[in-house]
User: Fold this.
Amino acid sequence: MLTIDEKQRYLEEVIVPNFYPLIEQKIHSVIFDFNLALLICTTRSANSIGLSTWQEAIGLSFNNHQNEDLPNNIFTTQYKGTSIEYINQYTKKIYEIQRKVLKKKVISCFIDLLPYKGKFQAYLVTYVPIFHPNGEVIAIQSHARLSRFFSHHEYLHHLMKNELGQREHNLEKLTTRESEIMFLLANGFSQDLIAQTLEVSRSTIANIIGNQLCAKFGISGSNTKLLAQKALQNELHHTVPISLYRPYVIILDDN
Assistant:
């Protein structure tokens, strides 16, 4: 089993030098050490969290969610009130994913949804364990790229516009929860993903769809597909409910 000094030496002598050619590339990539503290990253990754240089990011960790400097840089005016709790939950969840990658020696993928100026930016993130020649995991590397997570639903809306008919202007007022579900349906979320995002059970989502929303939109029975079409028809994919305007992590791994 490697000592801390042996791990540190391998990182400094092998891993960091091999990363140097990536620093000024137009990519998002980060290496976290065996303590899950940021070891090195690309300039683009540093810029994405409000920093000017990658050196400023050294030592940052998702475990330091109580440190207000970083979330203030990223979320600016949104880092206040109840948003603080949501952002802290978000950082804790990412830290838990990192710990799993480090301990279980597995690759993990997730969608990182970050709110900016009333819209979400979606990043497809992959965490990969970095192995020492003796087989121990001594770091993890993240690769992230902007994902066209919502754009195909915009295309679908235009494609189906004539088929869907005119927008309904006299809808019953939706509750906060109903607005959240309609927004997520319009953006292609399944009932399972909606439940994960809203942190409720799938049966709760199914009940709201079947007993409340379908009736409000004149749909017989419970039909999620037709309800999603109604959400598109009413251009609900554009409007982010205030209650959802916070960061999310959507885990893509089956386990």
